[in-house]
Design goal:
50% of the residues lie in helices and 18% in strands. The protein is built from 11 helices and 14 strands. The protein is of the alpha+beta class. The radius of gyration is 52 Å and the shape is rod-shaped.
Length: 469
């Protein structure tokens, strides 16, 4: 269970990926919008309340006096309280000369004398008595006669109502956007879940299937992006079904073909055990050896047939010379041909015939063709192996055996098919193996009458595409 959990952590679901791809950008957009809204609201609130500070500064300018060469300030205490009265915030002021000398007001106000060119007022944030304040710095010319130098007037206000106003504006701006994002997130969540419903249904359908059910998965209700995957799975299931079908047929054929020789072995063994005469025992052992040899050949051919099944094997192509391969294979059969008084010959192409394929499998194919030819050619007959090359490469094996009827020439390559009236021992697998190996190499095999009118000619044609570049 822990192993599966770790695997799930490493492989997030498609739903989580889609939701992350959509909801994460939405959350980032919301965060950017909140930050942007804060600065916009801050600017709007400052614009509203800064105007009041500027008006107070202009009013204070009217009370600046000049007497005996010195600047002064004349404002009644009641008028001052009225001018600076505010229900929520504290208001402070300071009036200075252009040199920074205090004329009147609070000397602890943070001093700043920089005003942008072309303007008469500057606004900035500061700290007074451990409180955040907003300061308006006004530069003005007192209305005096004679005219005097300009003065700098600072008006500072704590930010209680500004902060309250900002919070109210932020809530009014951000709350609808947050609700909109939440609604969008819920809709996206449900939309993704609804969009992935066909995949869940497909998973349930496949999960409830029996391991024996290899029928195609219906692809008419799956999303278009998943349809190629379903098609690939169906193709895989078709190939698996073909392999399992071959294995089932192979097991059935093997059980059927092995039943008779195994029964014969048991009969010969029982006969040998009952005999007391050594001559009869030796005869029974001779029959036993013959039966064991036939069984060994049958098992070897069955294994070769399974090994060369086109749907169940991968061929590792490599260059080889068909001319040399056929010559070496034919030489291996010379002793048996000599024993049966058969003239075994080889007709070379006169030059290398290069192909791409598995030399071992092609050698097995040649051995089965030559074995079949020698087995069914009567004593005194001829068997010839030819190699030819034109636009294709050809391996030809001709014999002087009994002519195979035209109507049997397609069935002769079927498994366990043997011609009626044949007195030779065999399992009917040799030519089936030849056909399977030829199919593996994209080669075609044909059967015709021999050119001299006696016997048969098997021709395996390899396409030019199998010649190495």
């Amino acid at each position: 269970m822990k192993k599966n959990a770790r695997k799930s952590d490493r492989n997030p679901t498609l739903r989580s990926r889609l939701l992350r791809l959509v909801l994460v950008p939405l959350s980032l957009i919301l965060l950017i919008d909140i930050v942007g809204s804060y600065f916009v609201v801050r600017h709007v609130a400052n614009d509203v309340y800064d105007v009041e500070l500027n008006e107070i500064a202009r009013e204070l300018l009217l009370h600046v006096t000049h007497s005996k060469g010195e600047m002064g300030f004349d404002l009644e205490p009641d008028a001052e309280r009225t001018l600076l009265l505010d229900k929520e915030d504290q208001v402070y002021y300071a009036i200075r000369t252009m040199d920074g000398n205090l004329i009147a007001g609070d000397p602890t106000l943070p001093v700043q004398t920089v005003i942008k060119s072309g303007k008469d007022t500057a606004y900035y944030d500061g700290v007074l008595q451990e409180q955040s304040v907003r300061v308006a710095l006004f530069r003005g010319q007192p209305l005096l006669h004679p005219a005097t130098e300009p003065v700098m007037i600072q008006v500072a206000e704590t930010q209680v109502k500004r902060d309250r106003h900002e919070r109210a504006l932020l809530i009014q701006l951000i709350l609808p956007q947050v609700l909109l994002i939440l609604i969008a997130g819920i809709l996206i969540w449900r939309g993704v879940a609804h969009g992935l419903a066909p995949l869940r249904k497909l998973q349930q359908e496949v999960g409830m299937r029996s391991h024996l059910d290899l029928s195609p998965i219906a692809a008419d209700k799956v999303p278009g992006e998943v349809e190629p995957l379903v098609g690939a799975v169906n193709d895989l299931m078709t190939r698996v079904d073909a392999v399992l079908g071959f294995q089932g047929r192979f097991i059935a054929d093997t059980a059927h073909q092995l039943r008779t020789p195994v029964a014969g072995l048991k009969a010969h063994i029982e006969l040998a055990l009952r005999e007391n005469d050594l001559t009869q025992v030796k005869r029974a052992l001779g029959h036993l050896y013959t039966s064991a040899e036939r069984l060994s050949r049958l098992v070897s051919q069955l294994l070769s047939l399974a090994r060369n099944e086109p749907n169940n094997v991968a061929v590792n192509f490599a260059p080889f010379d068909l001319n040399q391969l056929a010559l070496r294979a034919a030489q291996e059969w010379v002793p048996l041909a000599y024993k049966k008084q058969i003239d075994l010959g080889f007709d070379t192409a006169g030059q290398p015939v290069l192909l791409n394929g598995e030399a071992a499998r092609v050698t097995e194919m040649i051995n089965n063709l030559v074995d079949n030819a020698i087995r069914y050619t009567p004593p005194g007959g001829r068997v010839t192996v030819h190699v030819r090359q034109d636009e294709n490469a050809h391996l030809i094996v001709s014999d002087d055996g009994a002519r195979i009827p035209v109507e049997e020439r397609t069935r002769i390559f079927e498994r366990f098919h043997r011609l009626l009236g044949s007195h030779e021992e065999g399992s009917g697998l040799g030519l089936a193996i030849v056909h399977e190996i030829a199919t593996l190499h994209n080669a075609t095999i044909t059967l015709e009458d021999d050119v001299d009118g006696v016997g048969n000619t098997f021709t395996v044609s390899f396409p030019v595409s199998h010649a190495p570049g």
